[in-house]
Structures are given as C-alpha cells and as structure tokens.
Amino acid sequence: MSGNNDYTQIDNLLREDRMPHIWCPGCGLGSVLHSFLTALNKSEVPLDKVSVVSGIGCTGRTAGYVKLDSFHTTHGRAIPFATGLKLANPELKVIVFSGDGDIGSIGGNHLIHAARRNMDLTVICVNNFIYGMTGGQVAPTTPLNARTSTSPYGCFDRPFNLPKLVTAAGATYVARWTAMHVRRLEKAIVEALLKPGFSFVEVIAPCPTQYGRKNRQSTGLAQMDYYKENSIIKHGADTKDVDIDLNGQIVIGKFVDIECPTFYDLQTEILGKTFPHMSKTQAEEASA
Amino acid sequence: MSRDGQLVGEFFMNGDVASAEGAICAGCRFFAGYPITPATEVAERMAERLPEVGGTFIQMEDEIASMAAILGGSWGGVKSMTSTSGPGFSLMMENLGLGAMTETPCVVVNIQRAGPSTGLPTLTQQGDMMQARWGSHGLYGTIAIAPSSPQEMFELTITAFNLSEKYRTPVLIMSDESVGHMSEKVVIPPMEQIEIFPRRKPTVPVDEYLPFKADADLVPPMGNAGEGYRFHVTGLTHDERGYPDMTAEAQDKLVRRLLDKIELNKDDIIILEEDGIDGAEVVVCSYGISARVALLAVKAAREEGIKVGILRLVTVWPFPDQKIKEIAKKIRAFVVPELNAGQVVLEVERCAGGAAETILVPHMGGAVHDPDVILEAIRKGSK
Questions:
Q1: Which domain holds residue B283?
Q2: ipTM for the whole predicted complex goes beyond 0.90
C-alpha cells in the first residue's frame, strides 16, 4: 500500500507499460477496475500475496493490466484455476475477475461448485449482458427481448439471475452494484475481499459498442444514466426478486452476508480428526 | 513407512497405486481429479495419502476443472498432478494447451481405455497416443512416457515430475488399463536414493525477473505466485515479460522455443530400452503393455532362429527419429504392435523412410495382443 492512506492512488497497481488498454470508449471496465484496485488498497491485504485470475473476454483482459501476480487463463476456467492456486498456497488472496459469459455460461459449472464448496475466493463478475469481444452475441445474462448479433429479433432465451444462482449454490457474500456506483462498489469489494469463503460481486457495466447501440443506449453515458434512474438499492433483498428485465429496474445492494464454514475450515476440521496437526483453523493460524 | 510419510520397501500394488506413490516420492503435494475408470485408483490413493504427507487432494467437478486446478496448483508453488482416462483426457485438452503455452510443470496420468467415446471403460487400448501428441490445438512440444509395469508406473511418474520441472511443461504418463490394473511387486527405495529435479527458481532480483526469458537450454526459470514477482501469465502469445504480443514475430519466437525446448533436448529426455538390435533382421518397436506382450513373441522367434531385436519406447514423445533412422539402415523390418489401428507406427514408418519395411500389428483394444500374431509378423518381416 502507498502509505499515505490515499487509497485511490492505484498507479502502482497498474501495468502502465500495457496502456492503452483494449477497452472501447464508454466501456464500464475502466471504472470497475479502478474501484477494484482502490478496494484492494483499502482492504490492506498484502499485495505480494494477491493473485488475480481471469478467463477470456473483455473483462478477462483485466488480469493483464494489474501489476500483481495475474493469470489470464482459458475461457470459463478462471475459477478452477484459482481453486488450485488457493489450495496450493492458502496464504494467497485469490480474486477471480471476469465477465458474465465467461463465469455464467462456459464456466457456470465451476461457479456453482466453487460456491457450494464455499471456496476462499472473491469473484468479481462484470455483467454487460453480452459477449463483447466476439462482437456482441447473446449471453446467459441477456434480458428477454434484447437485441444482439445472435438474437437479432430479440432474445427469447431466459437469462440467469447470477446473485440468485450463487446464493442457491452456497455463496456467503453476494452483492450487486453498477459501474456508476463506484464508492458503493468499492466498499462491497472490500467486504468481499475480507469475507472468508466464497464472495461474489456482480457489477452491471455498460457496453455501448455491442449492447447499448442495439438496445437504445448507444453511449456509455446513456447506459450510466439508465443505471442512475433505474437502480434501486435494496440491501438484504431476496435474490429471487432481483431479475433484470430489458431496460427495467436494477435491484442493487448487498443481498447476502452470512457466516458459514469455508472449504478450508471443513477440510482442517475433518482431516484434523485423523491428522491432529491439521486441526488449526485459518483464523487461529492468522492470529498465531 | 518413513517419518515423512513416504513408503519404503517392497509392496504388492497395482499400476495406478504405484503411480500415486511415485508422485508422493517426487514431491507432488496437490492432486485434483475426477473419478473415471480405470484411473480412479490413482485419485483414491492420493486422497488417502496426501493428507499424510501434508498435501491437498480435491475431487473437482469435472476433468476440465481438474486440469485447470493443477495448473493453478503448480503456479502456487506445489508439484501437481491429475489422472484420468479417455473421455476425461479429451476434456483436459484445452487446459493442457494452456499448460504448454504458460510453461507450467505438472503431470497428467492417462490410464488409457478403449474408445472412441465410452467404448470399453474397463478394458485396455493404446488409442490416445496421437491425441497425447496433438490433442490440444496449435503447436507445442509434448513429453509422453509409457510404462510397462507397476514398478515403472512408480519410477516413471517420478521421471515425469522431474522432466516437467526441468522443461517447464506438462508431462503425460500414457499408461493403459492393463498396466494400471496389473498388480505386481513394486520396490520403493528410500528417498535419498531417489533423484528429484527441483523447480528452476529465478536467480535475478525480483524486479529484474522476466518470467518467460529462457536460459540457454530454452527453459525459463519459474517464480511462484505470492513470492513478490508480480508477474503476468497468459495463454495469449506473449513476450519475455509475459505480456501479450499479437504479432507473427512474437508467435514465431515463442512457439519455436516451445517446440525447440523439447526437440533440441531430445537426447536428455528420451528413454529407450534396447535388446539384441546389433545384427538383427527384425526389430520389434513397441511401448507400454504391447512391448511387454511382444517379449513372448520375440523369445519364440529367437528360438526359431530369427534374429530379432527389441526397441522399447519408454518415452514415446518426443519421438526418437534418429534412433529409428539408424536402425532402419541395418534391418529388414520393424514390427510395431500397438493396441490401436496404427498410431506410433506412422512415426516409425516416417523415420524408417523406406530403408526398412514397417509392419503394423494392430489391435482394436479390449484385450492385449495374442503373442502368436506378433510372432507371425516377425516371421513375415524376416523373409
């Protein structure tokens, strides 16, 4: 951390020699990344122990821009890669930063199993309702009736409500914010980073190039205006009530924040019965 | 058992279990896998043994996740392994390519079973030998080893870990159901008699470390996550810094090195077993269980007065081109028994280049060869 308590100083966390980035004008990823890095500073986790793991897609490029141990893996497989990394070295703070297509579609099975295990991972899922990098195809999150290059007459393929999915699967921290709510997003990411177990932060973000222009929000600013006018903060909302309809309301807030034994807790507890040296909990080890 | 949890002594165990014990001796402390016949016993043994030696076992949700997890485990600084069979091996292919591209040491044990598809789940085949070489898309070098016995499952799993660290690449144990499920005596020596190749750690200060800058032998030293290097690792074509570089020049430089680090170090990598090749008219060239079955045919042929030698490919990939070329000049024929419709035989034929005849002894799997069929091929080759 920079030491001057200016958490917003994130230059030291960016690979400036990789700029300019590939993201389009109006894309939400820049501000989400800023919130993430600020949150990382604020959380005061030791930066040398942080690993950022991404899959494939626009959001997947994030790993390449952060000056941290960072892994740009295969499409959908960031979560199992991160699982191996975390299990090999439980000291690491492992963050999966990827998009809705990567995490919710091709990687959907890994998402629910990591949540089921309450694996010690923080997943930041940037949801722009579309496959951006490949040119704007329908995603597992695309609202009904939305136009994409593979739903040219309107999407008739019912979308995932990701907070509901991960809550049902066992996530212990679930929040949703938008790329406009930078401070609240930052706070949520700090909470997620400090939460033992599987934490999930969905970030609704603009993709004017691929999603917005086909759905009457043709600029990043128009999409931000839409978030501003249509977001409703409902902390503790039942995740079954947070579906997102085309150009409809977006329920945001912290939906889930519960205590539940993590994978590591159960592993050490149950193996500890046979192997007493393993019975320490993570918290005990941290305080030791 | 020694104090550190390693077994020492003589045991009666099957090939799957022996492979797991080899992994423990090699220092493997992370295993991620998914149940599949006939490889499940590797995972079961690791689930039982890893907690005893301070390692971690996890049963993942599928083989795709298993392969991804061992890559993560390896970057976490822990020697990592998975095991599988046909259908699972197919699912691992994409992340195997990520392992090749990101130069991630790890070991994948494939206890081959008869395919295609679900095929004969409990019965043998050597049908994945070309998949081992070419299974993931694009261009990369492969190291694949084919044990013939439980003892070799133990020893060659250690070799596989050593090669994976030395050359920073996934290494494949291409076994099969008959070896995996064969129970025999396995001798496990004390640790001090086992040679272990440790991870090639960077020797430069943290801020000067370039994660993909290779040493003279074309292999880059490897930092682990959490050690302060703050490196970037990507499956995209990248430069020495690990940064994506989307040019033909960067592609040529990187991919050529990935191929060359295996190809130019072949002499160090390849293990062959030779017997009676000098003065032979026919050489039986085989691997794994087929090479073992062929011994009966070779014995019978020698009793008939046929001069027959044996070239056993302990390492199948990289392929010993030069060796085959040299032998081809001196013999009438190669006989190549394999439990498939002809895979490694194509390499033998290519290298023989017409200097010697190449006779395939195919078998579609489900059982091993009848040695008489191999004997008949040897007779044919000697005429």
A1: 272-382
A2: yes
